[in-house]
């Protein structure tokens, strides 16, 4: 039987966060994601991340309370979020993150992604969620 659909891309990722304002500032100021909509009654902020969305829900909000305890050293809500960036200039990315007080624990490394093997940098958001910034596949145009 043929599947009546095909997956095109990631539509959105939802992260449960301890401090909604702090996380909104991080994803906005550090990563350049713009607020598209706020749903205060749910404790939810929708952010545009290129063609996709990142939704932040407050642990103490209507939606966040349904998920139990929040992310911490012994448990996570998500393994990591990967954002394809352009251009991928490791030195500029590390300097930008450092200017926002975000440490990068190691150099860029080659990882497999939607476009193939390419460089990635990893770091943590304010709640300890891992964020990956992914460049183009090796040999692909930036």
UniProtKB/TrEMBL annotation:
<protein>
    <submittedName>
        <fullName>VOC family protein</fullName>
    </submittedName>
</protein>
<dbReference type="InterPro" id="IPR050383">
    <property type="entry name" value="GlyoxalaseI/FosfomycinResist"/>
</dbReference>
<dbReference type="InterPro" id="IPR037523">
    <property type="entry name" value="VOC_core"/>
</dbReference>
<dbReference type="Pfam" id="PF00903">
    <property type="entry name" value="Glyoxalase"/>
</dbReference>
<feature type="domain" description="VOC">
    <location>
        <begin position="9"/>
        <end position="136"/>
    </location>
</feature>
<dbReference type="InterPro" id="IPR004360">
    <property type="entry name" value="Glyas_Fos-R_dOase_dom"/>
</dbReference>
<dbReference type="InterPro" id="IPR029068">
    <property type="entry name" value="Glyas_Bleomycin-R_OHBP_Dase"/>
</dbReference>
